[in-house]
Amino acid sequence: MFTKQDVAEYYNTTQIHYEKWWDLKNSLSLHYGIWEKGIKNFSTSLSNTNRILAELSNISESDKILDAGCGVGGAAMYLSSNKNVQVVGITLSEKQVNFATRIAKERNLDGPVSFRIMDYTKTSFDDESFDVVWACESMSSAPDKQAFINEAYRVLKKGGRLILSDFFLTSDNQLDKKSLIKKWIQTWLISDLISCELFVEELKNAGFIIKKKLDYTEKIRKSAKRIYYAAILGAIPSELYNLFHSGVSRFSKKHYKSGYYQYKALKENLWKYNIVLAVK
Fold first, then answer.
1. What pLDDT digit, counting tens, does each position of 125-174 carry?
2. Domains of the chain: residue spans and CATH
3. Is the full-model pTM beyond 0.85?
4. Burial of 106 by CB count in 10 Å (0-12 exposed, 13-18 middle, 19+ buried)?
5. Among 73, 101, 179, 220, which lies 20 to 30 A Cα-Cα from 115?
């Protein structure tokens, strides 16, 4: 089980990998791209993920949004630019906050968009502060999923929406002979995975009403394969770099392996990519 300090260290020390694999300075995204008809490249698929989540959650101008696990701020800036909303992004990574704040300022979005170092399971926001809690592939990093759910419920206004996309086990207690899921989450710093069915039950127990539970697994498969190929191509350079640079961080050393394991686990049907919309 990873700690908050581990998560912060991971993102602070591996951001350089995302800058290369995800073209971070342009895409501002660390998530899977969703491929649909008309999507012709990885960059557009990444933006399409934001578009789909925004449309499913029916975001409008009057909304105040909490981006819980905001990464380098891509979704927050997308929402502000396209929906004219106010967004607060929170992350445990100081490097991500600094990166996102600088880009927002360059794009003249530092008024409606702001970023803070904060734990999304224990924020300092008042009760019922937000219309939407947005979590794109961030909930899976929470050691305590129920704590994430409870905090989202607390900060949402009555009728507020929780929209998230994330990785889920295909089924709880499934057989994984090669321990592919375990190897994946250890190299990508995911605290644990549960099934979407179990997660939905936990949402209901907290008081949420489930509006949508959608399976987008096939639509991210092309992204998963792309990440896999990047891992294969990066294996030898990474190992050579590790050999001659003793100061490589503990997470950077084996980070490339996550791309390999996630795709192998996907091919074994061990995980799904789901989008969930829940209302308070």
1. 999 999 999 999 999 999 899 999 999 999 999 999 999 999 999 999 99
2. 4-279 (3.40.50.150)
3. yes
4. exposed
5. 220
